[in-house]
Amino acid sequence: MKSGNTTPEELLLYAVTDRAWLNGETLYEQVEKALKGGATFVQLREKKLDEESFLQEAIEIKELCKKYNVPFVINDNVDIALKMDADGVHVGQSDMEAGDVRKKIGNDKIIGVSAQTVEQAIKARERGADYLGVGAVFPTGSKDDAEDVSYDTLKAICQAVDIPVIAIGGITKDNVKELSGSGICGIAVISAIFAQKNIEEATAELKEKTLEMIK
């Protein structure tokens, strides 16, 4: 059964946070700029923050996303997602398996799963994933463990599953057009939003180009 916890429209421009480029700003301020620029989905990704700070930050950013009516998910940390009642969670292949996540967080929460192969995609879909994040579609500096996924594999994954698929990894306003015709409903980015001097403008421009790409 296909679960309907998120829509392709919500996954158009998926912003993944990173505190590498804060430059004196708070993550909250940067996320708000991305939301003003038109980000349609936010994932809070914290690899090094202690649990208490992570929880506090998650609560604040969830409220912010609610204000803009944008889904908010936590990367990897199912316990934090449960504790602060996030809209859902995104897990990688090495994290908790989608079926176990579903048991833990219930049926009305969004579960995203990273996939690199058709086999992983089908399995995640069978275990209850609501959407898939597929990549890295271009070389990336943000994720050390990202394996490359070819355009053909991306397209094959989109054809193999009936849940929304977003591409991730090294996507910029200059190369997003290359993903045209693959079947994805959107893109997930980190540096293409948060490493830019004007986050709001960069987000708006990227959203426009992503809409053109999926037409």
From TrEMBL:
Chain sites annotated for binding 4-amino-2-methyl-5-(diphosphooxymethyl)pyrimidine: Q43, L44, R45, E46, K47, N75, S114, K143
EC number(s) per entry: 2.5.1.3
SUPFAM superfamilies reported in the protein's UniProt record: Thiamin phosphate synthase
Keyword 4Fe-4S: no
Chain positions recorded as 2-[(2R,5Z)-2-carboxy-4-methylthiazol-5(2H)-ylidene]ethyl phosphate binding sites: T140, G141, S142, G170, I190, S191
Pfam family, one: TMP-TENI
Cofactor: Mg(2+)
Binding-site positions, Mg(2+): D76, D95
Reactions listed under catalytic activity: 4-methyl-5-(2-phosphooxyethyl)-thiazole + 4-amino-2-methyl-5-(diphosphooxymethyl)pyrimidine + H(+) = thiamine phosphate + diphosphate; 2-[(2R,5Z)-2-carboxy-4-methylthiazol-5(2H)-ylidene]ethyl phosphate + 4-amino-2-methyl-5-(diphosphooxymethyl)pyrimidine + 2 H(+) = thiamine phosphate + CO2 + diphosphate; 2-(2-carboxy-4-methylthiazol-5-yl)ethyl phosphate + 4-amino-2-methyl-5-(diphosphooxymethyl)pyrimidine + 2 H(+) = thiamine phosphate + CO2 + diphosphate
Keyword vocabulary terms for this entry: Magnesium, Metal-binding, Thiamine biosynthesis, Transferase
Segments forming domain Thiamine phosphate synthase/TenI: 13-193
Group of enzyme by EC: transferase
Molecular function via GO: thiamine-phosphate diphosphorylase activity
Pathway note: Cofactor biosynthesis; thiamine diphosphate biosynthesis; thiamine phosphate from 4-amino-2-methyl-5-diphosphomethylpyrimidine and 4-methyl-5-(2-phosphoethyl)-thiazole: step 1/1
InterPro entries, alphabetized: Aldolase_TIM, ThiamineP_synth_sf, ThiamineP_synth_TenI, TMP_synthase
Keyword Chaperone listed: no
Cofactor binding, note field: Binds 1 Mg(2+) ion per subunit.
Function in brief: Condenses 4-methyl-5-(beta-hydroxyethyl)thiazole monophosphate (THZ-P) and 2-methyl-4-amino-5-hydroxymethyl pyrimidine pyrophosphate (HMP-PP) to form thiamine monophosphate (TMP).
Family: Belongs to the thiamine-phosphate synthase family.
UniProt protein name: Thiamine-phosphate synthase
The species this protein was found in: Eubacterium segne
